[in-house]
Amino acid sequence: MVLRVAPSADIGSDLPPVRKVFLSLRDCISRNRLPAGTLIVLSSIAQERDLSVETVSGAVLMLSLGGLVERTAEDEARVLPISEQRLRNAVFLREQSEVEIVRRLARSANGDFLNDLRELILRQKLVGMRGPRDLLRLDARFHRTLAERAGLGTLWPWLEEWKLCIDRVRFTVEGSLAPEEMISQHSGIVDRIIMRDADGAAAATRYHLSGVLRQLPEYRRTHAGQFCD
Predict the structure, then answer these.
(1) Considering the chain, what percentage of its residues have pLDDT values greater than 90?
(2) DSSP structure class, residue 33
(3) Where in the chain is the domain with CATH 1.20.120.530?
(4) Which of 23, 85, 186, 198 is the most exposed place for a label (fewest CB within 10 A)?
């Protein structure tokens, strides 16, 4: 399958061109719009966006360093399957960071912020009725809000990158995300923050983030071609 990728309206207009192309392609891969095996033609993307092939090549290099693609020819790159090792690394790094985030919040969150968290959960319940794909956008907002209110908002670019590794599984394996389960787990985290229970919030966060690994053996059995190593 050969795919040409149009610019995304969600990418900031003030970013360097190479960064825009990288983020657009990364988003497409994470959302399984570019499934494993898709052939990316660099010259086609360059022509569509009125960019140099060197700029697109730089973006593809960034993707290859992240284990998302491999160069197969001078003008081509192929999307790689999901790396189990990279997925496990992403879950580990998210756990280490986000457990500390919720611990801080359980010790310091004020009433206004707790009300904001309750509102986020309510919105998730409303959006969750539409299906899991819409819910993942609010999932990102939830985790980003926690980081920002804990004073660790500058971590978000890394947290987002690790989160996208997990999201790619959710978009690739149909039925792997149950909206009710995700919302229930988010609610559990919020409940423990409200109760000032730092250990409970940490445990709830670990359970929430490790869910994809608990299900991974089944995913590999049913979608063997989508995973590697």
Answers:
(1) 74
(2) S
(3) 83-228
(4) 85
| CB-CB contact of 67 with 80 (8 Å) | yes
55-99: pLDDT as tens digits: 999 999 999 999 999 999 889 999 999 999 999 999 999 999 999
For the entire predicted model, the pTM comes to: 0.87
**Beta-ladder partners of 190:** none
Q: Distance of CA 23 to CAs 56, 202, 228, Å?
A: 11, 31, 23
Closest CA to 74 of 90, 54, 88: 54
Rounded-to-integer distance, Cα 191 and Cα 121, Å: 11
Question: Residue 91 and residue 214: Cα distance in Å, rounded?
Answer: 11
CATH architecture type of domain 83-228:
Up-down Bundle (1.20)
Determine the Cα–Cα distance for residues 180 and 220; give it in Å rounded to an integer.
Answer: 23
Residue 53 dihedral angles phi and psi, to the nearest 5° = -65, -30
CATH topology of domain 2-80: Arc Repressor Mutant, subunit A (1.10.10)
Q: Report the alpha-carbon distance of residue 101 to residue 155 in Å, rounded.
A: 10
Pairing of strands 227-228, 82-83: parallel
CA distance 202 to 177: 22
